[in-house]
């Protein structure tokens, strides 16, 4: 042991060992910093490709805000609405009103004629046009354009439908045609369904990033056509796409106790068009049933500010609102539209 006040002498062996350790520490820190910069959530490729990996926050190729990018209409929090997808609604061109008298109608892109949308506009209503962006439906007029390689597993509960590969050039080309059809018909926005394939057994190894990139692609299509874009369900990717979508269409967040996830839209001053499917829908619902789905406690926590409708699963013209008012929109059961 060295005496107090006398500096100890280090052997050459000890100096070499300490020198090697110092070099290893420096190399380790440099390597760790390099990997962190490479794989950080704000990193990654920016080439707009179809990379299926990673869950980065920014959609590949997502549009950037520009001074001329303001849309002529975007929906507001607490706007009232109705959704009818089973058939096209029955509405004469000279109609004086429509039932219910709400702000927004969400109707099927394919079965609804342009004339119906024109009439809704004349009556002061805004129109969201529904189509499935993430599933193959054999009864759609463009279904013959899908290729075998575009399709994955059969959708649970929908035996005629299959999940779609969202990064497929062919799928995107078909969806581009659908967005353009919505523009030609005068839709104010699009409600694009089944973008949450990553949450399901899809047979395509779909990831959250696939959905993020797909929504970025759709945004690049809808923005120039002056149409708003919605996010259907897919709560996991809200932080990644909230900047490029204008509303949420949510199904059963109370049933699934996940409304808090979707409240991010309200905080961003964007509406949540919220649907629940009570088992007794189609007749007057009991007050406690309505309160379960329309309150903001328990499973409904986080749903304050949502635009809630209580519907039958087939999404026909029947609807009950949170004030227990029941309305029925007339549907044309013979004319399938175009």
Compact overview of the structure:
By secondary structure, this protein is of the alpha/beta class. The chain contains 7 helices and 13 strands. The chain has helices at residues 12-39, 114-122, 169-185, 208-222, 238-241, 259-267, 287-294, and strands at 81-84, 104-108, 126-132, 135-136, 151-155, 158-164, 189-193, 228-232, 247-251, 272-276, 307-310, 318-320, 326-328.
What report would you give on this structure?
Residues 45-72 are annotated as: Disordered. Residues 80-318 form the Glycoside-hydrolase family GH114 TIM-barrel domain. This is alpha-galactosidase. Its EC number is 3.2.1.22. This protein has one domain: TIM Barrel (Alpha-Beta Barrel), CATH 3.20.20.70. Mean pLDDT is 85; it is low at 1-27 and 29-68. The chain has helices at 12-39, 114-122, 169-185, 208-222, 238-241, 259-267, 287-294; strands spanning 81-84, 104-108, 126-132, 135-136, 151-155, 158-164, 189-193, 228-232, 247-251, 272-276, 307-310, 318-320, 326-328. It is of the alpha/beta class.
Which helices and strands occur, and which strands form pairs?
Layout: H1 12-39, E1 81-84, E2 104-108, H2 114-122, E3 126-132, E4 135-136, E5 151-155, E6 158-164, H3 169-185, E7 189-193, H4 208-222, E8 228-232, H5 238-241, E9 247-251, H6 259-267, E10 272-276, H7 287-294, E11 307-310, E12 318-320, E13 326-328
Helix pairs in contact: 3-4
Region (Disordered): 45-72
Protein name: alpha-galactosidase
Pfam families: Glyco_hydro_114
